Each structure stands twice: as C-alpha cells, then as structure tokens.
C-alpha cells in the first residue's frame, strides 16, 4: 500500500496525469472497460444483493457513461485558465486562475450503489488530473472483486489502483498522506475519516447520510405524488442515501394518502423476480431494520425473511417524532408517516434535527414551496419529485452540516478534485513607487482612490 502511494506520488510529480489528452484517454478507456464488462458487473451485483441488470444500468452504469461523456466533452473548458479583472493598484498587470490537480487521491466508497459511488468520484478525479487509490465497500464482495479486477488488470497502478478491504485496510489507508480524501458513507465513519485527514491537513469531501424529510401538502396532486414517492422510497429497497426517510402529510389528506400508497405498492408488485426489488445488504442491517418495525403501527407490509434478506415495502402510520424510527437514518424499505396541520411547526421540528442530505416537497402551492426552500437548509432536493435531482449533473450533489462537506457531479466534481491557483502577472516596463518608502499623505490618498478601481 505504502509503495503504491509512493509510486503514485512519483507518477504525479512527473506530470504524467496533467495533459488533457492523458485524462481523456483514461476516461474513454474506463468507459470502454465498463461497457465491455457490463455482463460481469451485472452478475456480480446480482449475486451480492439481487440487483437487476435493469437497475444496474439505470441507476449505476448509465450515470457513469454520462459522467464520462460530459467530462470528455467539457474538459477543455473546465481545465482552461480563467481570466479575471485586476484592480488598478496592480496596474499594469493581468490576473488569472489556473485549475490544477490536487495530486494523489483516496476514494472510499459505500455499498448501496457500489459502482456509482466508486467510479463517479474516480471519473471526476481523473478529469481533474489526479492519481487514484480506490477502496470500494467490502460488503458487496463480488462487486468489490469485479471493480478491483477491472481496474487493476487494465490501469497502471501508479495512476489508478483499487485496494479492497474493510475497516483494517481502510484504517491503514487513512494513516497515509494523501492530497485529497473523498469519502462516501455513514456519519460516524465520516467523523473518523475527517479526524484522520486533519492529521495531515488533507482536504476532504464527505458524502454522508441522514434523515431526509418529505412534506406532502393538502393541495398536492395526490396520485402523482404517491407514484413518485413510492418509487423513490422502495428503489434499491430504500437503501438510497437520498431516499425519502419519513413523510409529513397534511392531516386532511392523510387517509387518502395512505390508501393511495397501499394501492401503488400493490400495483408495483415489488419482488426479486420482477427485478424491481433488492435484498437488504446483510443480516446485520436486516435485523436492525426489522427491529425498527413497530408492529402496532404497521399500516402496510411488515413481512420479512432473514434467510433471503427480504423485507416487504412497509408503511408505518400514526408515527410520532419521539418514536425510535425517527432517531436515525432508516436506510431500508420502511416509511414512517406522520401527519401535520401547521407547516411552521414541522419546519421547526425538521430544523431541530441535523441538516438533512435531501428534502422533498409535494405541493401545488407556490407560497409553501418558497417558505420551505427559504427556511430549511439541506443538501439537495426536489419539488413534486424525489431523488431524481441526482440525475442532473448540472446540480452539484452533496450534503450540508452533518449530511456532508463538499459536492460533486459534472463540473462540481472537477472542482472538488482541483485547486484553483491564483496568479498576478506583471510586466517590468512600469514601476510606480507608491507602495515604497518614503510614505506620504498624497501617496496614501492616491492608493485609497486606486483601491476602488479595477481594469
Ligand atoms: P459506512 O460508513 O459503514 O462505510 C463506508 C466505507 O467506510 C466503506 O468502504 C467501509 O469499508 C469504510 N468503513 C466502515 N467503517 C470504517 C471504520 N471504522 N474506519 C474506516 N473505514 C470504515 O457506510 P455504508 O454502510 O457503506 O453506507 C451507508 C451510509 O452511507 C448511509 O448513511 C448512507 O446515507 C451513506 N451514503 C451516502 C451517500 C451520499 O452520496 N451522500 C451515498 C451512499 C451512501
């Protein structure tokens, strides 16, 4: 591990990753490898938690192909020197900003979208001209193996290397010095990563989780709301960082809302055979989730089977803010439904919790939409939709407060893996002596005037 990092540093310091042609070739190669190995990647993820080829394409691989296409298309612009104006005090000179790669980067992935969460940051890191050490999550072991095989058999390890493993391997990695650490995972592990990075003052991006609220107002379009909400909640069996965690629905439509939810879940016929449902990732998470199901409050679902790690899409009703299920991120197919009558009151409750990764608002009322957007801080969100904001790479993706630090996707990913080096360039043909000794009142007056002007 130490040797690989040393080799990557030499490779980087020799400027091998800096030319745009190197970056574009690497990105195109990665896309070709992913495409050529789609079947292997599909089989691996199916073995791990029965994720179908349809889902693997729509919510993992297709996003990566799009990321690569976009990066190769816009790289010249993203990496170009940006001219800025100069203040008159510096006359005659010009000012510009040079985007430069950070260096040797470490990317640590989470398990729930294992290809997406490993390769999307890697694509941004390559585009920005860095070397990469990638540590995918060890939980989907077949997926981790296939990521390692794909990269380690095809890329120079001094540029791009996958290291597999769990806590011990990640801990060893975190003891090394990197120029950037990009972490996706839980809040508690995010804190470990942040502390490890602090020892070397390494910049970090933390893509974390939390409880993402959904507010359904009395004047929403109920059928469409429920359709979009149920799909986004039960996609990947609720194991999505930006899944709606819980719902506040207006008291006056609560019963109709619940009935529609039941209808929608039944119509969607979620099961492994249909390819629209996945297993809970492991027994530990299965047990954790089952313990969160309060039998007294089940409105729909609740069945489970640990042998094949199945938990039925479940809705809990009459949930209170103090209930166990409202304490931590659920990260599974259980939806607590709470009702409200006063919007301001639930806004206060949401704001008493850590700032969420996402927030969803289903409403036809502009005033309500504006009020929520103005008053609640969250990473990203959607109006009359849920989770689809992630598919627009023009929207920087990340958390705020406890749900994360920094963002990526599209150009924001390039920025995350870049340093913007500021330069003032001055010719030698003119030397004003204003700043030099001896000082005088008239000099100060001129300086004060010049400080206000730009050219
Ligand atoms: P996790 O924090 O348990 O693991 C993430 C990574 O950290 C894995 O690679 C794992 O090997 C490593 N790790 C685990 N424990 C460690 C330790 N003690 N020391 C060092 N490394 C350690 O998270 P997870 O279970 O893989 O993923 C679920 C969490 O990730 C949820 O909270 C979810 O919301 C969040 N998540 C966030 C995003 C996002 O983009 N914001 C995306 C997916 C998942």
Description:
This protein starts with a helix and ends with a helix. Helix 5 (114-127) crosses helix 14 (410-416). The chain is of the alpha/beta class and 455 residues long. It folds into 2 domains: 2-208 and 405-419, Aldehyde Dehydrogenase, Chain A, domain 1; 213-393, 3-Layer(aba) Sandwich (Aldehyde Dehydrogenase, Chain A, domain 2), CATH 3.40.309. The strands form 4 sheets. The chain has a 7-stranded mixed beta sheet. It has a 6-stranded mixed beta sheet with strand order 5-4-3-6-7-17, with helices on both faces. Helices cover 42% and strands 17% of the residues. The chain has helices at 2-13, 20-36, 38-49, 53-79, 114-127, 141-152, 167-174, 187-199, 222-234, 254-268, 283-292, 343-352, 366-375, 410-416, 441-451, and strands at residues 82-84, 94-101, 104-108, 131-135, 160-162, 180-184, 204-207, 213-216, 246-250, 298-300, 304-305, 310-311, 314-316, 334-340, 358-362, 380-383, 404-405, 418-425. The mean pLDDT is 97. The protein binds nicotinamide-adenine-dinucleotide (NAD). Nicotinamide-adenine-dinucleotide is lined by residues 108-112, 117, 135, 137-138, 166-167, 170-171, 184-186, 189, 192, 207-209, 241, 329, 331, 357, 399, 404.
SSE layout and pairing:
Blueprint: H1 2-13, H2 20-36, H3 38-49, H4 53-79, E1 82-84, E2 94-101, E3 104-108, H5 114-127, E4 131-135, H6 141-152, E5 160-162, H7 167-174, E6 180-184, H8 187-199, E7 204-207, E8 213-216, H9 222-234, E9 246-250, H10 254-268, H11 283-292, E10 298-300, E11 304-305, E12 310-311, E13 314-316, E14 334-340, H12 343-352, E15 358-362, H13 366-375, E16 380-383, E17 404-405, H14 410-416, E18 418-425, H15 441-451
Parallel strand pairs: 3-4, 3-6, 4-5, 6-7, 8-9, 8-15, 9-14, 13-14, 15-16
Antiparallel strand pairs: 1-2, 2-18, 7-17, 10-13, 11-12
Bound molecules: nicotinamide-adenine-dinucleotide (NAD).
Family: Belongs to the aldehyde dehydrogenase family.
Pfam families: Aldedh
Protein name: Aldehyde dehydrogenase
